[in-house]
Amino acid sequence: MASSYRVLVSDPISEKGVDALRAAPEISVDVNTGLKPEELIKIIGDYHGLIVRSETKVTADVFAAAKNLKAIGRAGVGVDNIDRSAATDHGVVVMNTPSGNTISTAEHAFALMLSLARNIGQAHCSMIAGRWDRKSLQGMEMCGKRLAIIGMGRIGTEFAKRAQAFGMVVVAFDPFLTAARAQSLKVELAETADLALTGADVVTLHIPLTPETNHLLNATRIALLNPGALIVNCARGGLVDEAAAKTAMDAGHLGGIALDVYEVEPPPADFPLFSAKKCVFTPHLGASTAEAQENVGIEVAHQVKNFLTSGEIVNAVNMPNLDSRTLESVGPYLDLANSLGKLLSKIAPAQCDGIRVSYLGPVSELDTELITRKVLTGYLSAAHNEAQVNLINAPAIAKAHGISVTESTAALASNCTELIEVSAIKGEEVCTVAGTIFGKSARIVHIAGHYVETNPTGRFLFVENDDRPGIVGTLGTSLGSASVNIANMALSRTSDRKRAVTVIEVDTEPTTQLLEQLRATPGIIRVLSFEL
Known about the structure:
The chain has 4 domains: 116 residues, NAD(P)-binding Rossmann-like Domain (Rossmann fold, 3-Layer(aba) Sandwich); 180 residues, Rossmann fold (3-Layer(aba) Sandwich), CATH 3.40.50; 135 residues, CATH 3.30.1330.90; 75 residues, ACT domain (Alpha-Beta Plaits). It is 33% helix and 23% strand. The two termini are 52 Å apart.
């Protein structure tokens, strides 16, 4: 059988990965590493697939020359060397290999924890310096200690298995970890990071760095740990407030810290934690094992092969190339679906068991899979940035967190001729939002049991309160005094006239002080601030 697809491997990967490609009769493979940019541009037009590591820079100029390119596989996690926007514009799927280094990173983090607990680094230095410091290097056992795992993705899950084998009591926080999934993993589920950290003897971090998680371990949260607690970070620099950790160590509250990642890499010579007494530092070695490097090479080869031969897409990090017919039919609903997902993530309970998307009217007659994926994209990206969540990987990320996703055409009763209804389900609790399109204008028309009408994009305040006189006036006065202009306001109340909600679209983000002031107002039950 003649080869139908040509694949270029432009950076070194495992020979087993290359063999996996060559084993497919439909694929011919060229390994040509160390290419200069102009050399890559000259030949890339002949290839349907490209496999890179970090050395090859796949720029907009490369994509412009890549007339036949359908897929790029990155042997590793980071895709900073690939112009993803250009890839999307040219209809090229970009896939990475986030699971290839799972075991490697989990084992490295576990090794750091044990080294920290038993003073391995300090003992080694003491020995080669000719000392015998048995009394001063007394360690702590892990058996029976309370371990807080922040982030229960692949790596956090593997860490938990090893900790349980050592007899540790594991408590986990992850905004998408369901009660059923936690039970199957035999870990205690915490509803918040603070609850997970309270009373912990050890904490290990396995989450991405986002604006919300930056300095997640700050002075306040470090104070929640037991005296003498240990911190391990093999995830991302910036998750730990390094200055706060140093202060806590100097004060004697924090027992030790082990870092493989840093806010600035490499850390400067005067890095404050270098002077800490009980610490272990490694230079970003989480994925640096021969096995991990071989795994990502094999994994990326199979991903590119499967995409070219069967259309299967795994671990894509960019939006797929959508045909014009699909975009024409579902395009008007996509932005609304994304906003509904984001809104649900803000008002629904955390750690839901499932997401249900229901359709009513003409929209239900379309191929709604893409719309449902857009709902998931909005929901997951707004609440949890485990990875770049997009139309391709959103269902897989939901599944990995134990979130079931269902579609139906049984939407709530409505005066609207068509409706997209999205519900988050947690046990017996159901939280629902819904939206529709009037003509060419998308509108949100239902929020958590209240019929409202508001824009699907903008900066909003969601206020739930007792239904009594004066609340709306208080809101307006407070916002006006804080120079927060109201762009739009929607009011609704329950049929028994006991509760009401006010959805306020504002021009500027309210300050924390203003939000706390509103929350302290008699009669106001809940105040949320968010952007859609």
